[in-house]
Amino acid sequence: MASEPKTAAAAPESLLAAPDRASQAQITAEIVELHADYERRAEAGQQLPLTQLDFPPYRSSILRAPTKNPKLVDPETIELWSPAYGQRDVTAIESDLTLNSGSGEPQGERITVTGRLLDSWGRPVRNQLIEVWQANAAGRYVHQRDQHPAPLDPNFTGAGRVITDDAGGYTFTTIKPGPYPWRNHINAWRPAHIHFSVFGASVTQRLVTQMYFPGDPLFALDPIYNTIRDQKDRDRLIGAYDHELTVPEFSMGYRFDIVIDGPNAIWFEPEEGEH
Amino acid sequence: MGERAMGAVPEKTHPQTPGQTVGPFFAFGTDYPKKHEVVFPHSPGAIVLGGIVYDGAGDPIPDAIVEIWQADADGSVPRARGALRRDGHSFTGFGRSFTTDEGRYEFWTRDPGSVHGEAPFFAAIVFARGLPDKLHTRIYLPEGEAALAADPLLASLAPAERATLVAKRTPQGYLHHDIHLQGEKETVFLAYG
């Protein structure tokens, strides 16, 4: 009991593929129809979450999304705090995914991703943990459940961590991930993305999201990206190419700022160290 | 918590970054040693908090993450660092558990105390493949009927909904708490005002 859970077993086919798989055209039509419906409901004054939980084009959400509206609560004291992290909890090499695994250089296009972690009032969120994970340049994840025929890279695991600095800033060095096939429907491909897991000053601000790359032709086809109902909000997940961040003869630079929403009560919370 | 007497909150100026699913491949990005050991196993006061995460068909979900964040036994809010690199004695109040192939999550932890006379609970967050965004919930301790009755959230719920937020004490003093993402026994999930 209570030993470290094991997650390495390969998933049966049934976990990955819906029994009767739709075509891309069907999925795209469902996405377009749902987005139009959300727009009508929003215009009629209905409050809708930014990310739709019940989004049938993302087939595995059908049995996993709650069907009831969440209960609106005032956060209690413990919910206005979150775990404490500090600069020394993570070593510098953990934020360089091109160095933190293997002994040689990984294959692919070297990039840096830089941004700031901010709250809803634009204040920097300091000393918080950001975790990232991603596929390699060929679109392959280091995971037993990913067995599609693209090569693994012995010099790339694709996981990193960083603690935000005093300005809420963070930087990763990595390889641009490739697009990735999955079994949601026939010929389903995920746009290239980096997973982000972010902690805030309040546990209510906890965020897991994905950063995408500008101009990806797969955006309109992807059920996961389109669980976000509004184009303005979908655009917020696209890192911006920034030539100022590009390092001559070394790496391409992208900027990705992250805003974590908090309840109004956290406006008043004292800064760390004022207790 | 309600209104505070400290003046008005300014308008929010920065639109939030929307959430996305954690996907199927979170394990290598969010794993670290002893992530589910909020306290050292079998140390005085240590209990196992665990249960099964179910989908709407009643099947266990083998690729979910459950995180807990809690007060210490005396009701204090943990400020010790080290949730990422466990030293085996500092109480950081945070734990993370990946569900097993049988859908089971579990933590070594201890009962949270009451922070300001409120009914003690674990703040819990659930992520999963197929779940487009995080879900917040609470796991209340089953003891202390008066505090539970006075809890504003629990008091607002029908008995069947309330039951989805209160853990069961096992004969050995551990806590059992299943989480249903969907269906008849759907867990009550939270949005914060």
Output the number of helix runs of chain A. Answer: 3
What is the name of the CATH superfamily of the largest domain in chain A?
A: Aromatic compound dioxygenase
Based on CA atoms alone, the radius of gyration of chain B comes out at: 17 Å
Structural class of chain A: alpha+beta
What is the compact description of this entry?
Chain A is α+β, with helices and mostly antiparallel strands and 275 residues long.
Structure description:
The complex is a heterodimer of chains A (275) and B (193). Chain A is of the alpha+beta class and 275 residues long. Chain A has two domains: 22-61, no CATH class; 80-264, Aromatic compound dioxygenase (Protocatechuate 3,4-Dioxygenase, subunit A, Sandwich). Helix content of chain A is 11%, strand content 21%. Chain A has three helices and twelve strands. Chain A has helices at residues 13-16, 24-43, 231-235; strands at residues 71-73, 110-119, 129-134, 159-163, 169-175, 180-182, 188-190, 193-198, 207-212, 240-241, 252-255, 258-260. In chain A, the strands form three sheets. In chain A, strands 2, 5, 10, 11 and 12 form a five-stranded mixed β-sheet that branches. Chain A is globular and about 55 Å long. Chain B is mostly beta strands and 193 residues long. Chain B has a single domain, classed as Protocatechuate 3,4-Dioxygenase, subunit A (Sandwich), CATH 2.60.130.10. Chain B contains four helices and ten strands; from the N terminus they run H-E-E-E-E-E-E-H-H-H-E-E-E-E. Chain B has helices spanning 27-30, 145-150, 152-155, 159-163, and strands at residues 47-54, 64-69, 94-98, 104-109, 121-128, 135-140, 168-169, 175-176, 179-180, 190-192. In chain B, the strands form two sheets. In chain B, strands 1, 4, 7, 8 and 9 form a five-stranded mixed β-sheet that branches. In chain B, strands 3-2-5-6 form a four-stranded antiparallel β-sheet, with no helix packed on it. At the A-B interface, strand 1, strand 3, strand 9, helix 3 and strand 12 of A face helix 1, strand 3, strand 4, strand 5 and strand 10 of B.
